[in-house]
């Protein structure tokens, strides 16, 4: 079996000139280096319901695998290694992670499973995940693998703006979900981890389709521009508000803008006409925050209203759930709303079951879809944040 330097050298050799469709072939060439018959890359689809094999020339043929109800799916959902065996071979299913962002799984087919396989295959998975992330922008193979059907233009615009769905580290965990993923219009989120400060925002533009996604796109870019210009939270609100009012005078965007000091737990926030965030502590709802504290973006300067910044102090282990109205307003044919109570019950039950933040968000959007029989009437976006500061200098309690 090859040593780690050989694996790294192989990746670097491939990565310099690889196209996205070359990633599957690179995985195949990894196989003999780790004493495997085959190594196959699966990427999770946008719905996070299927693991779809990344195709490539001379790569093994595979069918998609359901996330729910399968061991490969469990490897993805719980980010743990699982093993399956049949008469012909042994299969190891290894999470494919970009840092803490779940991309899919890696399948390795071997004659026998050794401790060396269990040590080396996560390294191979990490290297291939890096290859997926660095080469995906140079072609469409990765994107097409993840799509079960064509994506509407409004959704294409927003997905290309969003940060990764998950970040875990330096005392915080951030995980988000967005539905309907192929036809989302006005909902979006953004975050940035700069030093000890987590900047976080959720947006919901009025309307649907391309018009709504265009307004939300402006809001996200104006938010990033103001943040990167060093403005404080109130000034960021003013800047985004001004851009929307000038460029789309009949439009508005509800939003929550937050700054969390991850060293102290100090939270500063503006709720711009948006549903109040929920604060959970020890698996229970403590309160929902004061909302609104400002007019929706696009209305503030127009009506002469100054935003109010409120401050809260979190306790270690606290979770904050931000969500758009499409989450609680999803309803059945009998007009039974998903509602805040059901939302709180779902989140607290998931946390009690020790599900990770990304898996909680994945299951939440599926529960919302099932409540509305698979057809959302509005976009539904949710972001879960957990603050868990290190208790010992130089350590990080979150993986």
UniProtKB/TrEMBL annotation:
<feature type="domain" description="PPM-type phosphatase">
    <location>
        <begin position="169"/>
        <end position="387"/>
    </location>
</feature>
<dbReference type="InterPro" id="IPR052016">
    <property type="entry name" value="Bact_Sigma-Reg"/>
</dbReference>
<dbReference type="Pfam" id="PF07228">
    <property type="entry name" value="SpoIIE"/>
</dbReference>
<keyword id="KW-0378">Hydrolase</keyword>
<protein>
    <submittedName>
        <fullName>Serine/threonine-protein phosphatase</fullName>
    </submittedName>
</protein>
<dbReference type="InterPro" id="IPR001932">
    <property type="entry name" value="PPM-type_phosphatase-like_dom"/>
</dbReference>
<dbReference type="InterPro" id="IPR036457">
    <property type="entry name" value="PPM-type-like_dom_sf"/>
</dbReference>
């Amino acid at each position: 079996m090859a040593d780690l330097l050989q694996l790294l050298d192989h990746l670097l050799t491939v990565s310099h000139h690889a196209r996205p469709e070359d990633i599957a072939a690179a995985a195949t060439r990894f196989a003999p280096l780790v004493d495997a018959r085959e190594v196959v890359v699966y990427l999770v689809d946008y719905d996070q319901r299927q693991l779809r094999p990344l195709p490539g020339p001379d790569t093994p043929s595979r069918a998609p695998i359901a996330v729910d109800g399968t061991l490969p799916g469990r490897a993805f959902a719980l980010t743990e290694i699982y093993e399956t065996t049949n008469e012909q071979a042994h299969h190891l299913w290894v999470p494919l992670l970009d840092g803490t962002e779940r991309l899919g799984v890696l399948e390795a087919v071997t004659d026998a499973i050794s401790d060396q396989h269990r040590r080396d295959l996560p390294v191979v998975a990490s290297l291939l995940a890096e290859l997926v992330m660095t080469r995906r922008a140079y072609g469409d193979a990765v994107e097409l693998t993840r799509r079960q059907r064509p994506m509407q233009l409004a959704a294409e615009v927003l997905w290309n703006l969003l940060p990764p769905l998950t970040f875990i580290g330096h005392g915080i965990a951030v995980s988000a979900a967005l539905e309907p993923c192929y036809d989302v219009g006005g909902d979006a989120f953004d975050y940035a981890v700069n030093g000890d400060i987590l900047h976080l925002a959720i947006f919901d533009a009025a309307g649907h389709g391309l018009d709504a996604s265009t307004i939300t796109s402006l809001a996200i870019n104006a938010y990033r521009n103001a943040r990167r210009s060093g403005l404080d939270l109130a000034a960021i609100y003013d800047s985004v508000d001004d851009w929307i009012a000038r460029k789309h005078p009949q439009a508005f965007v509800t939003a929550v803008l937050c700054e969390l000091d991850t060293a102290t737990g100090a939270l500063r926030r503006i709720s711009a006409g948006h549903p109040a965030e929920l604060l959970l502590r020890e698996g229970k709802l403590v309160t929902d925050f004061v909302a609104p504290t400002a007019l929706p973006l696009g209305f503030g300067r127009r009506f002469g209203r100054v935003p109010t910044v409120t401050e809260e102090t979190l306790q270690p282990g606290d979770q904050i759930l931000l969500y758009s109205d499409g989450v609680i307003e999803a309803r059945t044919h009998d007009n039974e709303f998903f509602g805040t109570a059901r939302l709180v019950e779902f989140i607290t039950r998931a946390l009690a079951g020790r599900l990770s933040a990304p898996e909680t968000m994945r299951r939440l959007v599926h529960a919302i879809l099932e409540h509305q029989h698979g057809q959302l009437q509005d976009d539904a976006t949710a972001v879960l944040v957990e603050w868990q500061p290190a208790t010992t200098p130089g350590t990080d309690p979150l993986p």
